[in-house]
Design brief:
Elements lengths: L5 E2 L8 E2 L12 E4 L2 E5 L16 E6 L5 E5 L5 E4 L5 E5 L7 E6 L5 E5 L4 E5 L5 E5 L19 E4 L6 E5 L5 E5 L5 E5 L12 E6 L5 E5 L4 E5 L5 E5 L4 E8 L6 E7 L15 E6 L4 E5 L14 E6 L5 E5 L1 H4 L13 E6 L1
Parallel strand pairs: 1-20, 2-24
Antiparallel strand pairs: 3-4, 4-27, 5-6, 6-7, 7-8, 9-10, 10-11, 11-12, 13-14, 14-15, 15-16, 17-18, 18-19, 19-20, 21-22, 22-23, 23-24, 25-26, 26-27
Length: 344
Amino acid sequence: MPDIEVSQQLESGLPRAGHESGDPSTGSDVIGVGEYRYRVTGDNWGNLPDGWFYKEATAVAVDADDRVYVFNRGTSPMIVFDTDGNMIDHWGEGIFSNPHGVSVAPDGNLWCVDNGDNTVRKMSPSGELLMTLGEPNKPAPKMSGTPFSVPTHVAVDPSSGNFYVADGYSNASVHKFNPDGELIKTWGESGTNPGQFNIVHNIATDSEGWVYVADRENHRIQKFSPDGEFQTQWVNMSRTAALYIDTRGDEDLIYVGEYFSGISSNDVGTELGPRITIMNTGGEIVARVGLEAYGEQVGRFFSPHGIAVDSRGDIYVAEVSHSDYGRGWNIDHELRSMQKLVKL
């Protein structure tokens, strides 16, 4: 294992903002500062037919044509929108037990992770089943390191086609597969040391093939070589749940969705999440969006569980608002779980 390097995030001069005005009581729908200013939707994003609902959106992905795929636990598991929020397709009924993660492969197909039946499925953009990994409803023993025990997400290396499965809720593992779905290797174990995990919740690769893991309950991002060798970790974060790497610009940008890390009685604490952090691959924070605690107010988040960015730089955030908040509250409406942040 190489020497441990802990990247210290920038504290001075860091672009930080909740609302542009700095006062959420104003009702402003603009958040962020500098190059990273966004207008937020406020309500659930996406125009659903009458009678349809998300219940909660768990993940979101955007393909090369800017089609937006929202994986959710409502009327239809996969709902496809254009960037204006118009529904253009839907599929997945009768296939998925408990949608959790979705990602777009370089070939345009989608990897869909179902943590209800412990499977990872490769789907075409129109919903055709192309490959299934794992035997439905037959999970591996907990912490066995064997695929799969409540998996969470998939990342694909664009140069090789190899892909990585975060096997995170009942395992503490990353599994590397070749494009044909053959297991190459597994790494990781339970713990708090470098290379260990406490909920491998999300995973992504950058343009050079480095692998990044959102180690949620260890409040960090870990970076690995394609062979699973630990490189560095970025700490001083909240509960790192969502992860997306945009490789289209001059430099790769990492978008991290973080859960609230305070306690339920402290719903006015600041800089504890939930929020979106934007970083470069050197671990430097270039912007943070969201300052206040959780809530339905415009410019706040509940639980950013999935994140994606389109070619314009707009951010899509899927949140497990029902699981984390709504089912425990005495409310008569569906909490917002799908937001769009339009870059200004």
